[in-house]
Amino acid sequence: MNKKSIPYGQIIKWVIAIGVPALLYFIIPQSDAVSPEMRKFFVVTAWAILTWAMNLMPVYISGLLLTIGAILWGVAPAAVVLSPWTGSVVWLSLGGLTLSVIFEKSGLMQRIAYFFIVKTGGSYKGIVTGIVLSGVVVALLVPNMTGRVALYCALCYGIYHALKIKNNSNTGAGIMFAGFVAAIAPAWLYLSASENLQLVNSYLKETGHAVSWMDYFISNFPVMLIWTLVLLVMVRILFKQDVQIDGKEYFVEKYNELGKMKPKEIKFLVVLVLLVIAMIFTNIDAGWLFSLAVIACYLPGVQVAEVEDLKSVNFPMVFFVAATMSIGSMSNAVGVADLVSSIVMPLLQNVGNLGMTAFAWLTGVITDMMMTPLAGMAAFSPLFIDIASKLGLSIVGTTFSFVWGVEQLFFPYEWALFLILFSYDVFDMKKAIKFCTTRTVLSIIFLILIIFPYWSLTGFLK
């Protein structure tokens, strides 16, 4: 009987994932500033981050082990480790992922995307432009980035395959990158469109600095719409058409096949519109509203979703979100924020809001190289809130600038959402790095020259 041997590379990864945390346990000295619980926190966090970064275990299993291990080892009480489940962000993630599945099954996704592509001409430039512009609408209706990335990757790969575009061409890569831009960039248009923004806003809420949906919209929609258009132009310049395609007839045919809006689509659209109205005009947390929207989809007389649809929901991602948030909860409980603040604050005494904004962005970019965006935000958002508060600087501006940095990357491994795109094998690593690096460089320029002045004008830097 043949026994399956473990690949040598996998063994090395496990040695790193176990060895580095073990080394930290013995290197970090116990003192008045570093308690035994804090030392344990660094160990379990390092293990989780390395495990996620090297993809050693399914995120559900590693997140579950982090949660149970932290409780059993006494890093923090169970009430602290499991506290994310009592907040709204986890439920927002669950609701958003479920609504994404229902959105795709309803046919609204294809209808919106094909409408924009047909209106923009169906050429290569028209396809890229139509896909990105459709994201402005889809981001409002599908309040989950993970779900939107999955939807747009599938849609764009279908277009790439149907038009028989050759592998690793600029044309194929441009269409796929347009889908990623459509899923990610408009996430900053609306507070409800990103689980990342909702996560940091939940931390701001704990300190009394939460941002309302409308305040965020006023201070971000205009500049982030410009940012979305900047990325559209970037894709069209970096990946100029190198394959002749004629997609107009294809998209017109596909759009016509959808016919008139079906009752199911109309009812689901009404549910989504009511969800948006509730987010704008009520003080109910978005997480609870998303859950109510999912429930509404199954009510008698509405019934726009089937029980089978639930099988397509990415439930493991919900546990991953909770696990990453528990890192932030434990960090606060063991006093990591106070320790790091005491070290960093002397260096930031006279930087001002602009300097703090740039520092937060840079920290976010570096953090994303070492851990997942969610884990980074869970671990460092409370820290930046604390530092900005003590220095009398903008807590809101600093925190959102950090998120802006966390979402930038140079290599595919840095963000699971980009890995989804990369896994379709339409373009090579060179094109991936070209897209990511250009986007990252543009992000800091845009932050300093456009976003920061506009935030100052609207009072968002409160």
UniProtKB/TrEMBL annotation:
In terms of InterPro entries, this protein maps to: SLC13A/DASS
One of the entry's Gene Ontology molecular-function terms is:
transmembrane transporter activity
Instruction: Give the location in the cell.
Output: Membrane
Sorted alphabetically, the keyword list is: Membrane, Transmembrane, Transmembrane helix
Q: Which domain of life is it from?
A: Bacteria
A Pfam match: Na_sulph_symp
Q: Which GO terms describe its cellular component?
A: plasma membrane
Locate the transmembrane regions by residue number. 6-28, 40-73, 85-103, 124-143, 149-165, 172-193, 213-239, 266-282, 317-345, 351-371, 410-427, 439-457
Primary place of residence? membrane
Regarding the membrane, this protein is recorded as: Multi-pass membrane protein
Protein name as it appears in the record: Anion permease
| Annotated source species | Diplocloster agilis
